[in-house]
Amino acid sequence: MTEEHALTGGNSTAVVRVGETVRREAGPWTPAVHTLLRTLRAVGIDAVPEPIGFDDRGREVLSFLPGEVGAYPLPGWLWDPRILDDAGALLRRVHEASVPLVGQDLSWRSRAEPAEVICHNDAAPYNMTFSGGRLTGLFDFDMAGPGPRLRDLSYLAYRLAPLAEDAGAVFSTEQRLTRIDRLVSAYGMVFARSEVLAAVADRLRELAEYTDGRHRETGNPEFADHAAMYRRDARRAERLSGEATGAARPEESRAGDEA
Fold first, then answer.
1. How would residue 12 be classed by pLDDT, with cut points 50, 70 and 90?
2. What is d(CA 126, CA 121) in angstroms, rounded to the nearest whole number?
3. Are 133 and 83 contacting, i.e. CB atoms less than 8 angstroms apart?
4. Among 240, 232, 149, which residue's Cα sits nearest to residue 194?
5. Sheet harboring 15-18: ordered strands across?
6. Residue 243 has what pLDDT?
7. Contact 133, 70 (CB under 8 A)
8. In sequence order, what are the beta bridge partners of 191?
9. Which tens digits make up the pLDDT trace of 82-113?
10. Average pLDDT, stretch 211-237?
11. What is each CA distance from 10 to 13, 58, 140, 192, 250, in whole angstroms?
């Protein structure tokens, strides 16, 4: 029997590597996730896992994505501004390729309105692979579902600007806002800073409530700590939203190599 090795990164369920495949617990949402991954790969997005099927234990089987996962403590090279370009561009490709699935009768694990695209819902370094200081992969689509594109983009900004308290990066407020501009510009649509920051605050409050529930279910104090952090970060994002001016535009996508 091929040996199994536990993997870091995705934090929804236990994940193991078996040879060149990844195995994890399946759920009612798994067929929809596999449909999404097949759709993405069919248009040439090979930065996401290939769905292979299920093993004899009923676990889903995906191809293994090589590279270094952006796990904690976050490495200094993660703040290279080129990664903002990579991440914004990849998320836009994923979103655009997912549009045909929005209206289909698929059982997703989450839904939000307006349903513009299929959101990843946890696009962050810990669900990404990197090689040579560049983004090479995006995985853990378990929480994917229809929703507004800004839902995904704002959370990615939260993790890569970064606005997260636990990121460990040292940037001024203006540098963080400029990094948001660069990420949004790489995505290729116009969103005002205030709009992105307001979406960050909304998403973090939602996450805090979800994490409170996980704390009640498990009694794990780490969930309570994370929920408190999300609320502090949400308040900061909301304050910045009220102060922010300007919008990131596609033609400004290479402005400001501040990292």
1. low
2. 13
3. yes
4. 240
5. 4-6, 15-18, 21-24, 60-63, 51-54
6. 87
7. no
8. 248
9. 999 999 999 999 999 999 999 999 999 999 99
10. 96
11. 7, 19, 6, 30, 30
For a pLDDT cut of 70, what percent of the chain falls above it?
Answer: 92
Distance CA 232, CA 192 (A): 22
Where are the domains positioned within the chain?
Answer: 4-63, 68-252
Residue type, 219: G
- Give me 218's structure tokens: 């498990």
Pull the structure tokens for residue 254. 């290479």
Pairing mode, strands 68-69 and 128-131: antiparallel
- Note if the bond before 162 is cis, omega within 30 degrees: yes
The mean pLDDT of the chain is: 92
- Structure tokens of 225? 């700590």
Give me the CATH code for the 68-252 domain, please: 1.10.510.10
pLDDT beyond 90 at 192 = yes
Report helix angle 149-160 to 173-187, nearest 10.
140
Instruction: End-to-end CA distance of the chain: give it in Å, rounded.
Output: 46
**Alpha-carbon separation of residue 132 from 136, 183, 222, 238, 246 (angstroms):** 9, 20, 32, 35, 33
Q: Which residue has the tokens 């979406």?
A: 199
User: Omega of the bond prior to 73 within 30 degrees of 0, cis?
Assistant: yes
